[in-house]
Design a protein that fits this description.
Chain lengths: 110, 147
């Protein structure tokens, strides 16, 4: 998870991810989209994304093809979702216990 | 930008819930292992989670018994949710003797997929579906035993 978060922290890598989100592309085609950076730099970004599990790589002869691994993206979001969901559930539990205590105290008052 | 929306119905009044959002000690009852919070505009929000993950932010808006809004991020190096980059808004909506608590986390890094109108928003919708599906109802009536 940390690797995934680090991977998408870099704008260029998010741009690459966007590119291969709905289509599989060869490394060369991806590099062509970013003329302002060298091919080795793009390869490096792809390696980081692959390492983080955000893109998957497939070989076709000498070509390397990449596409976004959408399940990993969902995982990233699911972690945050879980953080708040479980937080709110704990908030409910402690607030309801407090409310019950208050209601009982009030009930016992003359 | 994607926003994450979560709601929960709590059988307590906003007056009962409010201190859990604004009192540092009470905050720890439901979130964090250490909390330094100063709930007024410009005040600090620092909640340590699991003893190692430091979330940090600053209060933007505080309306007693109704709303807290603060910026939110993780101090951890390399985390894309950097301090100040997102906001969390928690609102309390009375419903009879209960309160609906809504949490909206805005500004999440969804730009990986924003162009095509899917991506994270799409997965959020799916997650919402999953959450609704597993929502439990109170076990008030059990199947009666045949006598």
């Amino acid at each position: 998870m940390d690797a995934a978060l680090r991977a998408i922290a870099v704008p260029r890598r998010r741009a690459i991810l966007r590119l291969v989100w709905s289509q599989e592309l060869a490394a060369a085609a991806i590099a062509d989209e970013f003329r302002d950076v060298s091919r080795p730099a793009i390869s490096q970004h792809l390696a980081v994304l692959k390492e983080a599990g955000l893109v998957s790589e497939r070989r076709d002869g000498t070509r390397r093809l990449y596409r976004a691994n959408t399940e990993s993206m969902a995982e990233l979001l699911a972690a945050l979702d879980d953080y708040w969901t479980s937080g709110l559930e704990r908030l409910r539990d402690v607030a309801e216990a407090e409310q019950t205590r208050k209601r009982q105290t009030k009930g016992h008052q003359p | 930008m994607t926003e994450l929306v979560r709601e929960i119905l709590i059988d307590a009044t906003p007056e009962t819930i409010w201190p859990f959002l604004t009192d540092p000690e009470k905050h720890l009852d439901w979130m964090g292992t250490a909390a330094e919070i100063d709930p007024r505009p410009g005040g600090v929000y620092r909640v340590l989670v699991g003893g190692q993950h430091q979330s940090v932010g600053e209060y933007v808006e505080v309306v007693p018994f109704e709303k807290v809004m603060f910026t939110f991020g993780w101090e951890q190096e390399g985390n894309p949710i950097t301090p100040g980059s997102t906001t969390v808004e928690i609102t309390l909506h009375p419903e009879g003797s209960k309160t609906r608590v809504q949490l909206v986390h805005r500004g999440l890094p969804d730009d990986a997929t924003d162009d095509h109108g899917k991506g994270w928003a799409h997965y959020l919708a799916r997650l919402d579906g999953a959450a609704t599906g597993k929502e439990s109802t109170p076990d008030t009536i059990d199947s009666e035993e045949a006598g």
